Amino acid sequence: MKSEKLKEKGEGGRISGDKWNAPCFFLVLVSLFTGCLSVFTLSCFAEEPGTVITADRMEYFGQTKKYVATGSAVLERAGAVVRGDEIIYYEDTSEAVIPGAFTYQDPETSIKAAKAEMNVDAKTGTLFDAEIFYRKYNYHISGDKIEKRGEDYYFSPDATFTTCDAPVPAWCFKGKEVNAVVDKRLTSRDTTFRIKDVPVFYTPYLWASLIKERQTGLLMPLVGSSSTRGFLLSVPFYWNISENRDATVVLDAFSKRGIGTGLEYRFIEPGGGSGNLWTYHIKDTELSEDFWEVRGLYENRRADGPGGYLDVNYVNLKDFYREYSSRRDVKILRYLDSVGEFNLPLGNSRLYFLGQYGQDLQNDTAIVPERLPEVGYVLNYTPLGGVMYSAALSTSNFWSEKGESAGRVDIYPKLLHSVGSDVVLAQSVGLRETAYAFYGEQDPGKTLQRAAFEYDATAHTRLYRKYSAFTHIIEPSIRYHFIYSSENNLPVFDSAELYGKTSDVELSLLNRGIVRGREVFVIRLTQPLDTYSGRIWQPFKLDLNLTAPLPLMMEATYDFNTRRIETVTSSVRFRVFNAGVAVGERYDRKEDVLMYTASVDVNLHRSVQVGGQMWYDAKGEGLRDMTLTLRYKRQCWGLRLEAVKTTGDFTMKVMFDLTGLSTKSPTGVPGYSPTL
């Protein structure tokens, strides 16, 4: 029906129409919904755009300056739409009353309420029996009474919060004295965590972030059980220190071992430096031991100025990982190294200052030589006429509490020359002088010197042939490596002492296959010959890498002298329907090792994923380690169940993920790095 303009009728007058349009008069009322009623709108417009309001009936009472719009009222303004049966507005007090059910929609927010009372100027009011939905992060807040106490501040005596869309949410928090600050946080007291509206957890105080940015507060706890450590409850607390710094504080409660505490600190500096520090302590009540762990990394590597890094890894007792980790790669660690290096670039060279401290987690650390410190100079390859030259100079101090301690000076210049196009011959010549001065309890005052000459030559070429859909490339090469050393009876501090007399020939043949621009296989055959040791034929080597039809990697050696396979390391990956499978093997005849590994990931459903890993020792304990993982993901929550079987321990862990309550650290998702 055609709209009519509102006309002034004087005191007590009344005007009505089947449908009407009042873009000017209700301009103030519209700001109630866009600037005040919307729970998550951050600001109001300084210049109010046009507004269109339609209704079946419109009345004006001049004595009280009250306007009443009834019958399918629809208000539209700047992309926001309000629908209700009746709207009452008082011009003098700027108060508006919506006595019946109404809805509000804008691009970010949706509101349903039974009624509302608002003050347009003060931008305050009350929603009754209201449901507020914020689309951006899928947040739902509902309560019998929600008060708007400021520009972006809402309060409810009793309300619920969730990110689930279902009428009965899979999970929600229900609390009293609920305070919601727009796009910032939610707090409440006497709060219960509910699953399908059944309370399962209570906390006297709750803090939750209402945005995806970093916010201080409790993270989701981890619950677990171990046959050696007992029941575990791990509660992490996240601290947003500043824009580029944050930290996580951890409290671990083990029913059999006591209380463990940890702290992880992370930062990123504007100049490019970044780092993290993790410390952990537990006083083991069963073993009567204090366990400490410190791990940290600082990096500021630069090519145009001074820089370096510091990597710290330390435990006070070597059994720490075996007692407190269920991760196989951590439990089997043999060494922990802490290394720090400072670099000063000098054009095509650099100066460096290095320190290194190592821990032996199986034997006595007191016999391990520590590099404290080393100062060196490295000259990168630099053209000189038709050759290239490089050099390295280092002076090192190796200290050992019970082993040999010595100072070492090492000078190593080299020349490199390359010639040829179809057949390329690359040659290098090097001289190396190394001097030692021993001190400490073993051989004090003893000195040693080693002079060495090195020659290395490699000749290689490339042959290829193109077929219709296949290109075959063959790259044969031959290498001769010769080292003459005046002294081989040296204590081993690092790889420099392994630089001994050598006279090796290496024959190699590389095969590559390319189909439609994709490399489908790489096969390298290598036969080393040792002309110095007296045993010429060294183990024959095979390196195989296939991408089709199955991704396969294999490294193997065969000894023609013993006619035995010496080592095999292989892995293959393939898919069976919707399952990904990986199988691996490691064999070493000399070390008497035969280990099998297998892993599988299966998508049983779009919400369910099952995975597992297994390590089997065919020469020893049989099934040593096994991990089974179940991941379940729904619209607003996720669950991860993990069972880990290791030698002497069985651990179960349960981890929950409530969508919308996560935070981020400067370097990604926060999460302390425990060894659990």
Q: What does this molecule look like?
A:
With 676 residues, this protein is mainly beta. Among the domains are: 3-209, Sandwich (lipopolysaccharide transport protein A fold), CATH 2.60.450; 420-576. 3% of the residues lie in helices and 64% in strands. The chain contains three helices and 44 strands. It has a 26-stranded antiparallel β-barrel. A six-stranded antiparallel barrel has the order 6-7-10-11-9-8. The chain has a two-stranded parallel ribbon with strand order 1-2. The relative contact order is 0.07.
Question: TL;DR of this structure?
Answer:
This protein has 3 helices and 44 strands. The chain has 676 residues and is mainly beta.
Helices and strands, with pairings:
Layout lengths: L2 E2 L14 E2 L6 H11 L13 E4 L2 E5 L4 E12 L2 E11 L4 E4 L3 E4 L3 E5 L1 E5 L4 E11 L4 E12 L2 E10 L8 E11 L3 E11 L2 E12 L7 E2 L3 E5 L3 E13 L2 E10 L3 E11 L5 E11 L4 E12 L6 E9 L4 H5 L3 H4 L3 E12 L2 E12 L9 E15 L2 E13 L5 E15 L3 E17 L7 E15 L1 E4 L4 E15 L16 E14 L2 E13 L9 E7 L5 E8 L4 E13 L2 E10 L4 E13 L2 E10 L4 E12 L3 E10 L2 E10 L18
Parallel strand pairs: 1-2
Antiparallel strand pairs: 3-5, 4-5, 5-6, 6-7, 6-8, 7-10, 8-9, 9-11, 10-11, 11-12, 12-13, 13-14, 14-15, 15-16, 17-19, 18-19, 18-44, 19-20, 20-21, 21-22, 22-23, 23-24, 24-25, 25-26, 26-27, 27-28, 28-29, 29-30, 30-31, 31-33, 32-33, 33-34, 34-35, 35-36, 36-37, 37-38, 38-39, 39-40, 40-41, 41-42, ...
